[in-house]
């Protein structure tokens, strides 16, 4: 069974009201992920990071679109219930920027197993904040990646006020699907694994939908979307991420259709 790195609506409701508001768009799936073993990010270090009110993360793809995980939302259609918070590492900062959603697009093939990506369209554009480009080939789908989020810092822990970051190494499909790890549960073509055999560093509950990224030829590029994992930072249980390169054409096409 896949253990998502998002939050149940009841858990999201306990987060500070200034930064979170309960949303009927929250997924009903059992949840898991927050950056475990991380350090605090500096203001402006990852300007495109987004916190979503249903207890997920995301990345600013364009001034009006946030790329997140399909399991964070319930369906495609009009939706004005989601609040996006961005522009700060401290969710309680008076400088935070907030935008309401007006539409959600969930990957049309999503059925709880793969195709775990979605867009949230904002009611008005965000200006003056850098966006995060997605990869369009597998050229950057290895090496060392950066993860970031406001999720739990330990399995079952509380959500964070300040953005945390960490680095994790690529884990090959063969290793990730071995009997010692996920025993064939990972969809090799659509998902990418990252983490340490010894555990200790990982995304966790509340990080779902956030980006996994690395340096490309011209700056940061997004290679993954936080999707699922067995617990948080457990040995031999790396994080499993939606492989953005596999879906890049579909993501770009959807963005165009949404005006982004």
TrEMBL record:
Residues 1-27 form the signal peptide. This is Serine protease. The keyword Cytoplasm does not apply. Gene3D superfamilies: Trypsin-like serine proteases (2.40.10.10). PROSITE patterns: TRYPSIN_DOM (PS50240), TRYPSIN_HIS (PS00134), TRYPSIN_SER (PS00135). One of its GO terms (molecular function) is peptidase activity. It comes from Actinoplanes flavus. It comes from the Bacteria.
